[in-house]
Amino acid sequence: MLIKLRLLPYVLLALAPWQQVAALAVNDAAPNCALSTINSKQALHLSDYRGKVVYVDFWASWCGPCAKSFPFLNELHQQLHASGVEIIGVNLDETPADADAFLAKYPANFTIATDNNQQCAQDFAVQAMPSSYLIDQKGQIHHVHLGFKAGEAAELQALVEKLLTTTKP
Fold it and tell me: For a FRET experiment, which of 46, 75, 117, 162 has its CA 20 to 30 Å from that of 154?
Protein backbone atom coordinates (compact mmCIF):
# COMPACT_ATOMS: atom_id res chain seq x y z
CA MET A 1 0.00 0.00 0.00
CA LEU A 2 2.86 2.41 0.78
CA ILE A 3 4.22 2.07 -2.75
CA LYS A 4 0.80 2.80 -4.23
CA LEU A 5 0.37 5.90 -2.04
CA ARG A 6 3.76 7.21 -3.11
CA LEU A 7 2.65 6.98 -6.74
CA LEU A 8 -0.58 8.88 -6.08
CA PRO A 9 0.89 12.38 -6.64
CA TYR A 10 2.24 11.28 -10.03
CA VAL A 11 -1.17 9.93 -10.98
CA LEU A 12 -2.79 13.17 -9.84
CA LEU A 13 -0.28 15.19 -11.85
CA ALA A 14 -1.18 13.15 -14.92
CA LEU A 15 -4.84 14.00 -14.37
CA ALA A 16 -4.25 17.67 -13.52
CA PRO A 17 -6.62 20.10 -15.27
CA TRP A 18 -3.82 22.35 -16.52
CA GLN A 19 -2.62 19.56 -18.80
CA GLN A 20 -5.69 20.03 -20.96
CA VAL A 21 -4.18 23.26 -22.31
CA ALA A 22 -1.39 23.37 -24.89
CA ALA A 23 1.96 23.89 -23.17
CA LEU A 24 3.68 27.23 -23.52
CA ALA A 25 6.72 27.20 -25.74
CA VAL A 26 9.77 29.24 -26.60
CA ASN A 27 8.87 32.70 -27.94
CA ASP A 28 5.45 32.71 -26.23
CA ALA A 29 4.65 35.57 -23.87
CA ALA A 30 4.76 34.45 -20.25
CA PRO A 31 1.40 34.65 -18.46
CA ASN A 32 1.11 37.38 -15.83
CA CYS A 33 0.30 35.09 -12.96
CA ALA A 34 -1.01 36.33 -9.64
CA LEU A 35 0.85 34.54 -6.86
CA SER A 36 1.56 35.12 -3.19
CA THR A 37 4.77 34.67 -1.26
CA ILE A 38 4.67 31.58 0.90
CA ASN A 39 5.43 33.19 4.25
CA SER A 40 4.20 36.76 4.10
CA LYS A 41 1.32 36.07 1.68
CA GLN A 42 2.39 39.24 -0.14
CA ALA A 43 0.88 39.40 -3.62
CA LEU A 44 3.24 39.23 -6.57
CA HIS A 45 2.75 39.18 -10.31
CA LEU A 46 5.23 38.02 -12.91
CA SER A 47 4.92 41.41 -14.62
CA ASP A 48 6.48 42.92 -11.47
CA TYR A 49 9.77 41.44 -12.72
CA ARG A 50 9.83 43.04 -16.19
CA GLY A 51 13.34 44.22 -16.94
CA LYS A 52 14.85 41.16 -15.26
CA VAL A 53 15.55 37.63 -16.36
CA VAL A 54 13.11 35.39 -14.49
CA TYR A 55 13.51 31.67 -13.82
CA VAL A 56 10.08 30.32 -12.82
CA ASP A 57 10.23 26.85 -11.30
CA PHE A 58 7.04 24.92 -10.49
CA TRP A 59 7.65 22.36 -7.71
CA ALA A 60 5.94 20.22 -5.09
CA SER A 61 7.08 18.54 -1.88
CA TRP A 62 6.55 15.02 -3.24
CA CYS A 63 8.80 15.64 -6.25
CA GLY A 64 12.21 13.96 -5.92
CA PRO A 65 13.86 15.93 -8.75
CA CYS A 66 12.57 19.14 -7.12
CA ALA A 67 14.66 18.39 -4.03
CA LYS A 68 17.70 17.97 -6.27
CA SER A 69 17.02 21.26 -8.07
CA PHE A 70 16.93 23.47 -4.97
CA PRO A 71 20.72 23.53 -4.36
CA PHE A 72 21.19 24.55 -8.01
CA LEU A 73 18.53 27.26 -7.74
CA ASN A 74 20.11 28.59 -4.53
CA GLU A 75 23.51 28.74 -6.23
CA LEU A 76 22.06 30.39 -9.33
CA HIS A 77 20.37 32.98 -7.13
CA GLN A 78 23.57 33.66 -5.20
CA GLN A 79 25.66 34.06 -8.35
CA LEU A 80 23.28 35.99 -10.62
CA HIS A 81 20.69 37.85 -8.53
CA ALA A 82 22.82 41.01 -8.43
CA SER A 83 23.04 40.85 -12.25
CA GLY A 84 19.25 40.95 -12.65
CA VAL A 85 18.10 37.33 -12.34
CA GLU A 86 15.02 36.55 -10.26
CA ILE A 87 14.15 33.00 -9.32
CA ILE A 88 10.60 32.25 -8.32
CA GLY A 89 9.78 28.79 -7.02
CA VAL A 90 6.03 28.23 -7.37
CA ASN A 91 4.76 25.60 -4.97
CA LEU A 92 1.82 23.46 -6.07
CA ASP A 93 1.21 21.49 -2.86
CA GLU A 94 -2.39 21.41 -1.70
CA THR A 95 -1.33 21.39 1.95
CA PRO A 96 0.90 24.26 3.13
CA ALA A 97 2.42 22.01 5.81
CA ASP A 98 3.84 19.77 3.07
CA ALA A 99 5.61 22.73 1.47
CA ASP A 100 6.84 23.92 4.88
CA ALA A 101 8.31 20.50 5.67
CA PHE A 102 10.06 20.39 2.29
CA LEU A 103 11.50 23.88 2.79
CA ALA A 104 12.71 22.96 6.26
CA LYS A 105 14.70 20.14 4.67
CA TYR A 106 15.67 22.01 1.48
CA PRO A 107 15.80 25.73 2.32
CA ALA A 108 15.39 28.24 -0.49
CA ASN A 109 17.33 31.51 -0.72
CA PHE A 110 15.12 32.68 -3.59
CA THR A 111 11.47 33.75 -3.72
CA ILE A 112 8.98 31.01 -2.92
CA ALA A 113 5.40 31.63 -4.01
CA THR A 114 2.18 29.69 -3.80
CA ASP A 115 -0.35 29.11 -6.54
CA ASN A 116 -3.33 28.37 -4.30
CA ASN A 117 -5.93 27.97 -7.02
CA GLN A 118 -3.34 26.52 -9.45
CA GLN A 119 -4.32 29.08 -12.07
CA CYS A 120 -0.68 29.92 -12.80
CA ALA A 121 0.13 26.25 -13.36
CA GLN A 122 -2.85 26.08 -15.69
CA ASP A 123 -1.78 29.25 -17.53
CA PHE A 124 1.71 27.80 -18.05
CA ALA A 125 0.23 24.36 -18.84
CA VAL A 126 2.68 22.69 -16.46
CA GLN A 127 3.30 19.12 -17.59
CA ALA A 128 5.97 17.75 -15.24
CA MET A 129 7.59 18.30 -11.88
CA PRO A 130 9.59 20.38 -11.77
CA SER A 131 8.77 22.54 -14.77
CA SER A 132 10.97 25.56 -15.34
CA TYR A 133 10.50 28.54 -17.62
CA LEU A 134 13.26 31.00 -18.43
CA ILE A 135 11.73 34.40 -19.21
CA ASP A 136 13.57 37.39 -20.67
CA GLN A 137 13.41 41.02 -19.59
CA LYS A 138 10.46 41.67 -21.93
CA GLY A 139 8.35 38.80 -20.59
CA GLN A 140 9.00 36.32 -23.40
CA ILE A 141 9.75 32.64 -22.73
CA HIS A 142 13.20 31.62 -23.96
CA HIS A 143 13.51 28.11 -22.56
CA VAL A 144 11.23 25.45 -21.09
CA HIS A 145 12.75 22.66 -19.04
CA LEU A 146 10.87 19.64 -17.70
CA GLY A 147 12.32 17.65 -14.79
CA PHE A 148 15.78 18.12 -13.30
CA LYS A 149 19.00 16.14 -13.19
CA ALA A 150 22.15 17.46 -11.51
CA GLY A 151 24.06 17.03 -14.79
CA GLU A 152 21.81 19.64 -16.41
CA ALA A 153 22.76 22.45 -14.02
CA ALA A 154 25.70 23.82 -16.04
CA GLU A 155 23.64 23.97 -19.23
CA LEU A 156 20.75 25.72 -17.47
CA GLN A 157 23.10 28.25 -15.89
CA ALA A 158 24.71 28.94 -19.26
CA LEU A 159 21.25 29.62 -20.75
CA VAL A 160 20.48 32.10 -17.97
CA GLU A 161 23.84 33.85 -18.37
CA LYS A 162 23.43 34.06 -22.14
CA LEU A 163 19.98 35.56 -21.75
CA LEU A 164 21.37 38.22 -19.41
CA THR A 165 23.77 39.38 -22.10
CA THR A 166 21.64 39.01 -25.24
CA THR A 167 18.32 40.60 -24.31
CA LYS A 168 17.52 43.96 -22.80
CA PRO A 169 14.22 45.50 -21.74
Answer: 46
